[in-house]
Amino acid sequence: MTIAQQNTAALFQDSKSVNLAVLSRFIQLSTTKLKVFWWHIHAYGTILGVMLLTLISFIYLIIHRYLSKLLPVLVHRDEWKISSTK
């Protein structure tokens, strides 16, 4: 009976060390994948930010162009015109 208990204890101890090794390897792989994912998100985030800024600028220019054509009365183009009077 004591031999069976010793064998069970040895198997339990071995399974703990195997589980810790597997867990350690899993944590290593997870952190590596997380670092790669963070690098890609950071790089693509910068590119998407620049693209969004460009798109907003184009939208602003289009709105400004069409409003200046549609509402010429509200835009004072001759405000700074210098006229000479003699």
Instruction: Give the number of DSSP strands.
Output: 0
Poorly predicted runs are: none
Order of H and E elements: H
Net shape: rod-shaped
Classify the beta-strand content into a percent band. Answer: under 5%
Category from helices, strands and their pairing:
mainly alpha
Q: How far is the N terminus from the C terminus?
A: 125 Å
Separate helix tally: 1
Give the fraction of residues assigned to helices. Answer: over 70%
Q: Characterize the main sheet.
A: none
Report the radius of gyration as a whole number of Å. Answer: 36 Å
| Arithmetic mean of pLDDT | 78
Keywords: Membrane, Transmembrane, Transmembrane helix
Question: Could you characterize the architecture of this molecule?
Answer:
The chain crosses the membrane at residues 41-63. Keywords: Membrane, Transmembrane, Transmembrane helix. The protein has a domain at 1-56. It starts with a helix and ends in a 16-residue tail after the last helix. The relative contact order is 0.04. By secondary structure, the protein is mostly helical. The mean pLDDT is 78. The chain has one helix at 2-70.
Brief write-up:
The chain has 86 residues and is mainly alpha-helical.
Show the helix and strand layout.
Blueprint: H1 2-70
Transmembrane segments: 41-63
Keywords: Membrane, Transmembrane, Transmembrane helix
